[in-house]
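Z., the sequence and structure:
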Amino acid sequence: MRKISLLVLAFFLISCFGTAKNQKRQAIYGIGFYNLENLFDTCHDDGKNDYEFLPDGSYQWTSEKYVNKLHNMARALADLGTDRVPEGCAAIGVAEVENAKCLKDLINEAPLKARNYQFVHIEGPDQRGIDCALLYNPSLFSIRNVKLIPYIYTRKEDAGRQTRGFLVVSGTLDNEHVTIIVNHLPSRGAPSYCREDGGSQLKVVKDSLMKDDPAVKLLIMGDMNDDPQDASMAVCLGAKREISEVTEGGLYNPWWNVLASGTGTLTYQGAWNLFDQIILSSTLLNQPANTLQLSGYQVFRRKYLIQHDGPYRGSPLRTHSGGKWLNGYSDHLPTVVYLKK
């Protein structure tokens, strides 16, 4: 009887050890991006053209609307990535946030506060006052360094214009050096060369970061205002459609095939685009099991993020449409990639 008990105990300990090893080997982290569609407070910022988002502005942007917007954004951000990671994303890049006050108010919303999300943000020169930022869970992702690299308009006709720069956040995830670039390229209202210049400038930043540390795990994310196959992404940045095409120091854009399958993040005239991309360095592809590598990706959908009636049925449920407040979320859907180790 004693021998049987010892055998059972030994089997139990071996099973526990094996389970622990398996859990460690299967560690999963979510890294997301979300364009929050005009997360403005209700106060004017000096030098910024934010007058639409004041109580007497065209959107009649009141405290009630602002508070509801914060609730909605926090809900979506807290849910992002939970299809595979119950605790949510380790880091989330965001676009179209007015200032640090909005970010403080956002992370104090209950779903994000419960996870102790923090943020990094540097005030940029955009004329409307919208910036990019990074939310992060400090228990998963720790910050090493943050800098804002300006976007440069290259043509004489654009002299004096200013827009969002490239927010570069270097940190540590699961004991590895991970750097995230969050950006928001010029809108479709600008000529295509503005976004192509943005793609070229992103490549310069990428090359510099990988020269400094060839092993860095790099993610370039943002609202590109272009699709993956457009010149800004495919040629100027050089992000490839297939992993097999990515050489050392190169980039992989998984959203190319996602869009080709009919899935996108925003609609225009009834058709899907996929502007909200997270592009990965070669150092996140086909890696050994003991280092971070790409494990999956998705356009993140929930029923509450989608409009269910009217002429825009099936599109993202935005905050305003046709001058009417919908109390929605964003005109974009979020995206997320999963890294495993």
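The two ends are 42 Å apart (CA to CA). Helices lie at 2-25, 63-79, 100-107, 110-113, 192-212, 231-237, 255-260.

Let me know what you think.
H.
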